[in-house]
Every structure is written in C-alpha cells, then in structure tokens.
Protein 1
Amino acid sequence: MPRESRLFVKTSLVAIVVAFGAGGTMAIMKALGWGFPDVWATEHAHIAFVGWLVNLVIGIAWWMLPLNRERFPSTAGRYPPNAPYVVWWLLNAGLCLRVVSEPYLALGIVPRAALIVASCAQALAIVVFAVTVWARVRGPSHPAKGVR
Ligand code: HEM
C-alpha cells in the first residue's frame, strides 16, 4: 500500500476512535438524563462520516483502482504527485475547522467565515479527488478473453 493511502487509512482509524468516543459519551449522558447540545450529534456524525468513511474510501480507492501509467507516470499510475496531500489537508483541516467552529457559531464567538472556509475546503477536496481518480475508472488495458 503506498504511503499516501496509509496516511488516509490511518487518519480514518483516528477518526473512528474519536467518533465512537464522542458517540459513547453522548449515549452515556443521555442515559443519565443529562442531555447535550444538538450540535454535538452533528459534529459526531461528521467525524464519523467524513473523518472515518470518506478518508477510508479515498485511501483504498487511490490504492486499489486500476492504474493509469500513461496519465500519471511519476506515481506508478496513481495520481498527480502532490494531489493526495492537497486533498488530505483540505479534507481534514476543513473537517477540524468545522467541528471546532460550528458549536460556537450561534454564540457569535467564531466568525461565520470559519464555517464557509471549512465547507469550501472539504468540497474542493472531493472535487480534486474525483477529478484525479476519474482517469482510473476504466476497464483492464489487456483484458483476458471474455473480461470487460
Ligand atoms: C461510524 C459509526 C457511526 C456513525 C456513522 C454515526 C452516525 C450518526 C449520525 C448520522 C447521527 C445523527 C446526527 C444528527 O442528529 O445530526 C448520530 C447521532 C448519535 N450517535 Fe452516532 N454514529 C456512529 C457511531 C456511534 C456510536 C458507536 C455511538 C455510541 C456508542 C453513537 C452514539 C450516538 C448518539 C448518542 C447520537 C445522538 C442521538 C440523539 O440525537 O439523541 N454513534 N450518529
């Protein structure tokens, strides 16, 4: 597995531990009748879906999808050299910024621009991922008989 994929998969493992920790904490607080702000559930869901699932999918997809050596000769057919790092930073810095800023937005402690920047960063990350991986979604270059 290439270094870039390991970065995404290990990030996803950190995120799932955090998401389960947060989910477990909220469940215990609910069971004890303490309650918690609704926005905690939103952040927990984002850590789980973006932090765990999206990082895992990107890491595995960039590793396992068919290689395109004509398009990406310098990375054994995988991606433009710096694309994984650009995507990792945009996605995960954007996620952290959202998780940290969103609970404070309503209180006016954090500027609205924080959530706008976080949202744009994450959306841009997925566009860069989708554009670079597009060239690898294809059939085998030397198909065996009967294989499409
Ligand atoms: C990958 C795993 C998980 C995913 C994708 C996930 C996803 C979600 C989603 C989408 C919500 C609703 C968020 C909202 O209302 O805005 C939620 C809420 C919640 N989750 Fe999870 N979750 C995961 C794991 C867990 C675990 C392991 C626990 C507890 C042990 C947990 C406890 C909770 C609690 C207590 C809530 C709030 C429910 C409420 O509003 O009362 N979650 N989760």
Protein 2
Amino acid sequence: MQQYNFYKSAELGSLVLKNRFIKAATFEGMYDDGIPNKKLVDFHSSMAKGGVGLTTISYASVSANGRTFKDQMYVNPESLVGLRRVVEAVHEVGGKISIQLTHCGYFSKNTRNGVPIAPSRVLNEYGMLSGLPFSKAMNESDLEETKKDFVWSAQQLKRIGFDTLELHLGHGYLLSQFLSPKTNKRKDQYGGSLENRARYPLEVFRAIKDAVGTNFPVLVKLNLEDGFKKGFSVEDCIEVCKKLESANCDGVVLSGGFTSKSPFFLLRGDVPLKGMVKNGSNWAEKLTMALFGPAIIKKYNYSSNFFLELAKRVRQQVKLPLVYLGGVDSRQGIEEIQKAGFDFVAIGRALIHDPNFLQKIENGEISKSGCTHCNQCIVEMDRGGVRCTL
Ligand SMILES: Cc1cc2nc3c(=O)[nH]c(=O)nc-3n(C[C@H](O)[C@H](O)[C@H](O)COP(=O)(O)O)c2cc1C
C-alpha cells in the first residue's frame, strides 16, 4: 500500500495542491440573507494562509428548495458574486478552494418552499415544529429538475474559479437519503437494493462530471455508516466507492452520521445543549430541545482519529483516492493516517480552533491541537459565524 508524505505537494485529479491537507467543510454561517459576507472571505483566506492545500466552503445548496432554512445560501447569480470574492482571496494567498454541493431533501424547516422533497415520504424530525411534518416522495420531474440544479450549480462554480467541488452524498442530506435504507422506501429503480439506492446519486455524479469535464476534479463526501441500525453500512460504503471509482471519481471523503438522526456520530464530544436551545427557531423547538434534548440527541465519546478503524476497512478494498476525516488533532494521529495508506487528510475543528494548526505541527511548535471538542463552534455558526469560543 502506497504511503504519502502529507506535507509535500500532491495531485488531486488534474489539480496540484501544495500538500495533502484539506480543510473539511464546516458550515460557516457567514452570509447576509444568503449572500456570502466579508467574514467568509477572511475565514477561508486564513485557512489558506495557515497552510492547508485545499479549503472547502460548506453547504452550497443547488436550489432554493435545497436549503435547510430560509436564509441559507444557494447557488444563484447574487451568491456567485460573493463566492467569487472568496475564491479570489484564497487564490491571492496561493491557496486552492473547493465548495460542497448539496440539497437538504427532507431535512428542512424552510417554510418558503412548502413540503420538502425526498426519496420517500418520511417524518421530518427537524422541520416538524416549523409546520413541515412530512416530506413528499420525489416524482420523475423532481428527480430531473434536481439533477439539472446540481449540474447548473457545478458549471457556475467552475466558471467563477473554484478548483474542485465536493458532492455531498453523506450526513443524511438528499443524496444520502437515497443511499440509506432507512429513508429510501421507493419501489422503483431508485429504491430497494444498494444498486438501486445508489442509482440516483451516481446519475447526479456522472451528470456533473460530464458537464465539468475530465480536467476538473470532483470529490464525493460519503458515509462510512449512518450511525444507527438498518442504515447505510460500511459494506455499502465499499460498494459505492467501487461504483464511484468506475465513474472516474477523483476521491472520496469518508465521514459518517445522519444530521437529523445521529448528528454527534460525525462530531463526537460534548453536546452543547444550552446553546442549541437558545438557537431554536421558535418556542416549541426551544422547549422540545430543553425537555427532550438529552433523550433525543445521543452523545458519542470523542477519541483521536475516531473513524480510522472503519475507514481502514474501505482503504483495504478500494483503489480510488481516499480522504480521511474525523478527529485529526495531532502529529501522531496524522502519522497513523499516512501509515494506513490514505491519500489525503481533512480536518474540521482543529482548524476552526487555530487556522495555523498545521504550520505549528510541521515546525514542531505543537504536537496536539488545543480543541477540546466542546462543540460550541456548532452553536456559533448560527450566531454570526463559526468560531472557536475557547
Ligand atoms: C461547526 C461545524 C459545522 C459543520 N458543517 C458541516 C457541513 O456543512 N457539511 C459537512 O459535510 N460537514 C460539516 N461538519 C462536519 C465536518 O466536516 C467533520 O466531519 C467533523 O467536524 C469531524 O471532523 P473533525 O474531527 O476534524 O472536526 C461540520 C462540523 C462542525 C464542527
């Protein structure tokens, strides 16, 4: 198995990166009415200055109805103007930049768009208290329209200078809802067997790849597992990686969890319940969170490289480039990932805590991040912008 020096330059498809470190997509909340603001520019340019080979803007919805809440950003002529400013700022300091393309599916409390669309009619735990208790199963025209939205968005993002894209097939968003047997109850060619559940996400991937051309890398973020019984499993993940490999995918970012059902599976550490109650969008949501939060939201203990054992199982079975993500917080942890044969490593919280984390690791100033996985950063993203409160 090939082992790479993560600190040296690397190719991601046709793209040359200065090293193998990627800033993982972490929702920034740096938008004014859905338009990227100056904070977003500064956030990503500080990541590039801090030394990551590639930084990733999170959650770019491909359409207005792909937003989980109403003022979130979606790809449109106005937001593209703001996104271009972020791209230019990152390029000016010698960095490269990606953006996560996604659609929320049923995970919506965006009342502006009416009933949310999803593979099947399912209970919408997230939007229930905002008056959107169920999703509607996507019909043929919904499938076609949504695929077109993904393709159009990808083309626009390439046009304004992004170096690559990350298509979100994980964390319980629309394409992950197709992959998961828990939320995909369809009886047609898009439901049932893994072959069928993977069909629509792969159609979307191929359509994007055809539209942006072979010289433009497209990454996929995929769950190792959903984090609950009868969900998408690591065996499913291996099979989907093989299909993505055949479809010329440039790399898969491995993660896990389902935002509406097992949100802390992908984060681990403390559940910042107080802040989450305060951020509730109406009194019913605040009350429910305060009363039932501890019962509804499962806590998972944090450990460094918490997905490594699962991710190794995928590494052993597939050849396409794999990006390790989850609990990367130390020099020793990075070495373990190198040894296990991963191609790249993505980091979230250690870089929110300190954008210079990697420089400090490389020059020996620190050997471990000061992030305590208190997860207050996820509360802050709904309060003016993601930041570390330590
Ligand atoms: C504040 C915050 C926001 C996040 N938002 C997103 C997101 O929008 N999309 C996504 O795919 N993952 C998101 N994540 C998950 C991260 O990409 C990553 O999977 C997780 O933080 C584990 O990596 P880490 O241990 O390096 O932080 C978010 C994580 C945090 C902490």
